[in-house]
Design goal:
The chain has 131 residues and is mostly helical. It is built from seven helices and no strands. The radius of gyration is 20 Å and the shape is elongated. 14% of the residues are buried. Helix 2 packs across helix 3. Helices cover 69% and strands 0% of the residues.
Length: 131
């Protein structure tokens, strides 16, 4: 029997793997979003493609990951590929999760720089107004 992919659960899995809170994802998606709406979204079996696209951009994860990731198949693949009976596949030096975390940290640093620049600009505007 074919098990259906639960897209909302996949959004939650990837968000949690990246260490991103529901509030942060809500902030990235825009003003009409909040933690409660993200929680409800993560309970949906199927999410609209345009919304998946926005989530994809916010989390830097391909839409197809939310649409196709099947935890049971992934666990079986890993168990069969890297179990005791497997042969050596070589060493992988790049961790995709570490790369995603690095991208997220860069995004946070960019937000912080933008806020600092905004504050500096406001100080300049206030000085101009006072003159």
């Amino acid at each position: 029997m074919e098990q259906k992919i639960h897209q909302g659960r996949n959004v939650k899995r990837f968000r949690e793997m990246l260490g991103i809170k529901q509030e942060s994802l809500a902030f990235d998606l825009g003003n009409e979003w909040n933690q409660k709406k993200i929680s409800m979204l993560e309970q949906k079996d199927v999410i609209e493609v345009d919304l998946l696209d926005q989530i994809s951009q916010a989390l830097k994860i391909p839409v197809e990951a939310f649409q196709n990731f099947d935890e049971e198949k992934a666990v079986n693949f890993i168990a069969n590929t890297f179990g005791d009976n497997s042969f050596n596949h070589g060493t992988i030096n790049i961790s995709p999760l570490d790369e995603l975390k690095k991208l997220h940290e860069e995004k946070i640093a960019l937000y912080e720089r933008m806020l600092k620049e905004k504050d500096e600009m406001m100080v300049r505007f206030e000085k101009l107004i006072k003159k």
